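Thread: quick sanity check before group meeting

JM: Hey all, I'm pulling together slides for Thursday and realized we never actually wrote out the predicted structure for the chain we discussed last week. Dropping the sequence here so it's in one place. If anyone has concerns about the input, flag it before I start.
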Amino acid sequence: MISVLIADDEHLIREAMANLLALEPDLEVAAQAATGPEAVAAAREHRPDVAVLDLQMPGTDGIAAARAIARQLPDCKCLIVTSHGLPGHLKRSLEQGLKGFVPKTVSAAALADAIRAVHNGGRYIDPALAADAISVGDSPLSPREADLLALAADGDPITEIARRASLAPGTVRNYLSSAVTKLGASNRHSAVHIARSHGWI
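JM (edit): ok, ran it. Output follows.
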């Protein structure tokens, strides 16, 4: 029997996944969680074989929660489910060592197959998402440019972004200017939109 942890902040979706997976003869839902920190705590308590984590949750996103679970429970395999299947999210997940990445539009049977695959040491990536990731290519942004562009997403002035990043305003301006140029954007707001649409921030 494969024990499963399901973490999703949307109660209805979480319950539906749990109920559908419970119908599989070899799967057992050991625990549920609504946030990243809850998922990590539940994994520590219940020690599931596989953690199914929503990409975007309050507190800590699914990728960060997966990293924390992997550190504390190396035998627990993590699988990301998402309604935001952007190429950058998939690549970031794979870079962090996750073995599975599927959209929430998959069937219950496909999700069960994904859980079995990662549990058995394999990998399960939704084919359409994999094709999109290949066609889009890698992010042209450096990690620092991506971080600062993410901080700029709320429209804060340069001085506030600099304060939050503990950098000089001129340094922030230079990084953001570089990001705008690399993305072929007209300004930083346009650059934020482009980077978000590809899942690069």
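AS: nice. The mean pLDDT is 87. The chain has two domains: 2-135, 143-197.
JM: adding both to the slides.
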